[in-house]
């Protein structure tokens, strides 16, 4: 019988544990202020191997905030990660959004790279979403899960750059596909670059 993503009591406990790890210090807008971008591989908190934890708006994943809808934090072994042990499905029970705020230098250029795949277990083949910078759409993305499996996710690298407008910038990822099977992101990196391509 194929593996199902049906939530169990174990998953419910993981959700409660993740909620308890919410960061105490919050910046304006509900995002933790960081001196640098952090945990782009979604490694904190740890989810039990071969399971996932569903999180909803108002909860946190390390320095990330779930700002809308719901997402699934995928534990080691559930499916292939692009980097480290964990990854993030931008659709939990529905489409979700995550964001992280970090300190930037106004006028400086920053490069953002990330690995994109899609939940291969159901729904429409094309997983779509957007990258947001300070709440504005900065890049649309899509990933076709046809022929993909949990053991061979087929991550594709994406990159763009932006010029910081303020001393704090918020980077977000949002799903634009309905249902419980969304785009998957991992290995998000932000670096200041001089000069910067893209």
Model description:
The chain is mainly beta. The chain has a single domain, classed as Galactose-binding domain-like (Jelly Rolls, Sandwich). 6% of the residues lie in helices and 41% in strands. Strands 1, 3, 4, 7, 9, 10 and 12 form a 7-stranded mixed beta sheet that branches. A hairpin with a 2-residue loop joins strand 9 and strand 10 (136-144).
Which keywords apply here?
six-stranded antiparallel sheet; Jelly Rolls; mainly beta; seven-stranded mixed sheet; 198 residues
In short, what is this structure?
With 198 residues, the chain is mostly beta strands.
SSE layout and pairing:
Layout: H1 9-20, E1 33-34, E2 52-56, E3 60-61, E4 64-68, E5 70-74, E6 87-89, E7 97-103, E8 109-118, E9 126-133, E10 136-144, E11 156-163, E12 168-175, E13 183-192
Number of helices: 1
CATH superfamily: Galactose-binding domain-like
Total tally of structural domains: 1
The assigned structural class equals: mainly beta
Radius of gyration: 16 Å
CATH topology: Jelly Rolls
CATH A-level architecture: Sandwich
Order of helices and strands: HEEEEEEEEEEEEE
